[in-house]
Amino acid sequence: MSVDHYENFPVASWLCPPALRPPIAAIYWFARTADDLADEGDAAPDKRLADLAAYRADLTATAAGGTPSGRWAAVFAPLGEAIRRHGLPTPLLHDLLDAFAQDVVKQRYADRAELLEYCRRSANPVGRLLLHLYGVSDAEALHRSDAICTALQLINFWQDLGVDTRRGRLYIPESDCAARGLRGEELLAGVDSPATRALVRQQCDWARTLMREGAPLVHRVPGRAGWELRPVVQGGLRILDRIAQLDHATLLRRPTLRAPDLLLMLWRALWMRPAPGALAGSAA
After folding, report:
1. What confidence tier does 13 reach under pLDDT thresholds 50, 70, 90?
2. CATH fold of 108-272, please?
3. Which terminus, N or C, of the chain has the lesser number of Cβ atoms within 10 Å?
4. Residues near 115 by Cβ (< 8 Å), separated by ≥ 6?
């Protein structure tokens, strides 16, 4: 997930218990800074990879209780405190760095399995880190969290399709393109067509299915956090609605949410109800 995508997640908002605001903010700034190293500015790929390697070394030192370089003190001082106080699972933080480094060198994906493996490292760790802070670790909840995080990542890809292709990146799997009689080069060239829009519609249906699979997690996460997660889920679904309203022409135009969308999201979030038997023992 790029900088924008991390903002799909609640970042120490007023709904978050005060004791958890510092570690959540620390995770956010760790991820955002690493993403900037991988994706912002005009540095050459070798320079980006070198910076990410230095950033990883600081993470390793911090996790071991050592002294990082000081280059990113504003990131690693609070992150170190979060690791010490809350036992953050640092392999998840390393997974994020793996994904950011991959973004530097990889611009195409052969099939859905390859893209999902990327999402496992680029998106899912954030949800799992938040669940760790809330003391939620059962397999069902982790599965739901992964579904939401992957869905958010995919939705961002389909929302930003035209932005990414102009930068030479294509996240729609090549096998899905081929199934529609399309070549990745056509999308990278910005060629809009009925087949292209049908392909984007297919990708959006995939993301919507994943989001609905994960949605029952809002009834499992304790306290106010569950309420905070509701508009995150509804926000992703609403972006899919906006893509559909554009007839899935996101090669040409990036859909955005407006004030009426936010009101609708909040209304839908308020009325989310657990499906019978979903996440047994969760609160309504």
Report:
1. low
2. Farnesyl Diphosphate Synthase (1.10.600)
3. C
4. 109, 154, 171, 173
